[in-house]
Specification:
27% of the residues lie in helices and 28% in strands. It has 324 residues and is an alpha/beta fold. The longest helix has 14 residues.
């Protein structure tokens, strides 16, 4: 049972398997200047969550409450906030990576990390979007400036970032090719993909040519091989660091550009995502939902690497609604 001074959260005292996650009571935060306090209704679980749970990446502090995605209701606003008022429904991504903490009943963050939640979707849908949608948007729009008629290759097109990237690229008027396992081809086509390649049976280099933009969430060999399908002037946007020390020279020799993206909290980007949702051009596929207390089960499912779209924790009133 919580009171106004405490809140439930999912915390860990050390790195390890999903069973290091436990529900605890911790002090409820208060918003500082330019911050809002959000009563969390839903929070996505992303690969970066289980990677940070299992090892030291950016975060080396303990105890640690994970979570960057959030959809909820503004509970209070700090000094100087003009964008939102208590009672407003909002969604956004906490500043990555150090602003972590949305797997809890309440969270504080800069007001401009949020945008109004689109009226046409519920908190579970909205909570699935921020980190993955911002990643795709910042990769395809801000970094690669995808334009109508361009050929865009999206790797892992049925995944959290990938399935949203397909939709964003189509909304920009691109010709979209996705890679996915055969059982997920119908799903990727339903998102608007013009072609789908089975990465298990086909080398994408044999069928994807003259590509303007590649979005690669995986790096490694996929990143290295993706350089070969880009036309001169094309751009590869990867979400993980390079593994080939000669990559820069190879890219220069081919006349292409390679960028490594780390997603940033972004009010304008969240507003653009909300506009795409409102226009019917973007929707998150939610594979599964779990109550906050079952965060460990959500992590375990995500780590199977067999999910489609997103996994979401439901919190507070959303938990009650899902249980009824």
């Amino acid at each position: 049972m919580t009171n106004n001074a405490t809140m439930r959260a999912i915390s860990q005292d050390n790195h390890g398997t999903p069973d290091v996650l436990k529900e605890v009571l911790i002090p409820r935060p208060a918003p500082g200047p330019s911050q809002i306090l959000v009563a969390v209704r839903a929070a996505g679980v992303n690969p970066t969550d289980w990677k940070h749970r299992s090892q030291v990446l950016f975060l080396d502090r303990m105890p640690l409450v994970l979570g960057w995605d959030v959809s909820g209701v503004v509970e209070a606003v700090g000094y100087g906030v003009t964008l939102f008022k208590p009672g407003d429904e909002v969604f956004g991504m906490l500043p990555y990576p150090y602003g972590v903490g949305s797997h809890a009943e309440y969270v504080t963050a800069p007001a401009r990390a949020f945008a109004p939640k689109p009226a046409g979707i519920d908190h579970v849908q909205a909570g699935a979007l921020p980190l993955a949608a911002l990643t795709a948007y910042q990769a395809l729009v801000d970094t690669a400036a995808v334009a109508p008629g361009q050929r865009v290759l999206v790797h892992a097109a049925a995944g959290g970032v990938g399935h949203l990237a397909v939709q964003i690229a189509k909304a920009r008027g691109a010709y979209v090719i996705g890679t996915a396992s055969a059982p997920k081809h119908d799903f990727v086509r339903s998102l608007g993909a013009d072609e789908v390649i089975d990465y298990r049976t086909t080398d994408f280099r044999d069928v994807a040519h003259d590509i303007d933009v590649v979005l690669d969430p995986m790096s490694g060999e996929t990143r290295a091989r993706s350089l070969e399908v880009l036309r001169p002037g094309g751009v590869l946007v990867s979400l993980l660091p390079p593994t080939d020390p000669d990559e820069a020279q190879k890219a220069e020799a081919r006349g292409v550009r390679v960028e490594t993206l780390l997603v940033e909290a972004d009010h304008a980007g969240m507003s653009a995502v909300a506009d795409l949702v409102a226009a019917g051009s973007l929707r998150a596929h939610v594979e599964a939902t779990f109550p906050l207390a079952e965060a460990a089960k959500a992590h375990a499912l995500g780590e199977t690497d067999r999910t489609t779209g997103k996994i979401v924790l439901v919190v507070g009133e959303s938990e009650a609604a899902r249980a009824s």
